[in-house]
Design the sequence.
């Protein structure tokens, strides 16, 4: 194997044992040779069995905290500790991150929204560290297990609820267009409008950033339109909060003048004024399921499916109502 990779036996041993003092390119060559020859890492020492690595793109949203609670809850039942890595808003971890993780030799890695590269996933596999992704931002083309919610159904339910109330000028503020869950929620919204024969107005589709600031920015733009929407489906609760602020700035009442629907059902959703109608995804359960799957992999038991999709559920509260009568007197 060392000869196949063009390295010394000592260097090959360092890579196989997770030593950090090997360059990234050399590590990649050795790992490719290890995989090609069907290498399987030895059983972990007991001292490595109580550490779980959690990596996330950023800590700016309560969504992340709810996921962490689920992972932590499951880890605690196995008397495992957590190491938290935040990528400062980046989706892809750095090479230094994978070097540090391999050196720590955790029992498993859980990524939320963040997507380790193919090389990084290979590094984890070679070192016997299972990876499970939660709501990955980009599609995983290998067999990495991932956990999500029914985003398309959630977008469909949100738009159908507003259509059922009589709205026809229904806007949406989705997330970045290159994020999988953003596209799925937007597609569900489109499907509901198409089915109801409500024209899809491109002017009413805005791309946010899943932050309150993005909801405020895009909410202001939508409410400044000459023919403004009577309802807005924000693709997460943080952006719905931004829409609330945009409406307050120009004196619009929710839901008398504007209906708002969010997505997530974060704890704060029920405490907004008025309480937010939103699409619930079971974030605690998603986090726990991801770690549970990783622990099974660590024992050598592959999951029956690579994808675990939790159902989403529309939660109707006080932020939606029939559209106002906007006819001229």
Sequence:
């Amino acid at each position: 194997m060392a000869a196949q990779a063009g390295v010394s036996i000592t260097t090959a041993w360092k890579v196989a044992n997770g030593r950090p003092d090997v360059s990234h390119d050399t590590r990649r060559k050795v790992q490719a040779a290890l995989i090609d020859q069907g290498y399987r890492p030895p059983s972990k020492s007991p001292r490595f069995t109580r550490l779980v690595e959690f990596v996330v793109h950023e800590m700016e949203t309560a969504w992340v905290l709810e996921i962490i609670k689920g992972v932590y809850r499951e880890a605690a039942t196995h008397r495992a500790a957590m190491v938290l890595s935040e990528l400062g808003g980046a989706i892809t971890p750095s090479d230094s991150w994978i070097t540090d993780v391999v050196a720590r030799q955790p029992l498993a890695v859980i990524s939320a929204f963040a997507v380790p590269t193919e090389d990084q996933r290979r590094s984890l596999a070679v070192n016997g560290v299972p990876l499970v992704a939660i709501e990955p931002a980009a599609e995983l083309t290998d067999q990495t297990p991932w956990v999500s919610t029914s985003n398309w159904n959630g977008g469909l339910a949100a738009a159908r609820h507003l259509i059922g109330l009589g709205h026809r000028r229904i806007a949406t503020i989705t997330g970045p267009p290159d994020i999988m869950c953003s596209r799925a929620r937007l597609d569900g919204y489109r499907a509901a409008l198409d089915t109801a024969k409500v024209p899809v107005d491109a002017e009413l589709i805005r791309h946010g950033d899943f932050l309150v600031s993005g909801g405020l920015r895009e909410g202001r733009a939508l409410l400044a339109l000459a023919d403004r929407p009577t309802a807005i489906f924000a693709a997460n609760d943080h952006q719905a909060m931004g829409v609330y602020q945009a409406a307050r700035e120009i004196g619009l009442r929710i839901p008398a003048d504007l209906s708002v629907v969010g997505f997530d059902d974060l704890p704060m959703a029920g405490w907004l004024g008025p309480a937010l109608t939103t699409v619930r995804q079971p974030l605690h359960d998603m986090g726990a399921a991801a770690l549970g799957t990783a622990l099974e992999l660590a024992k050598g038991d592959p999951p029956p499916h690579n994808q675990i999709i939790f159902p989403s559920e529309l939660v109707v509260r006080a932020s939606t109502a029939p559209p106002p009568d906007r006819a001229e007197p």
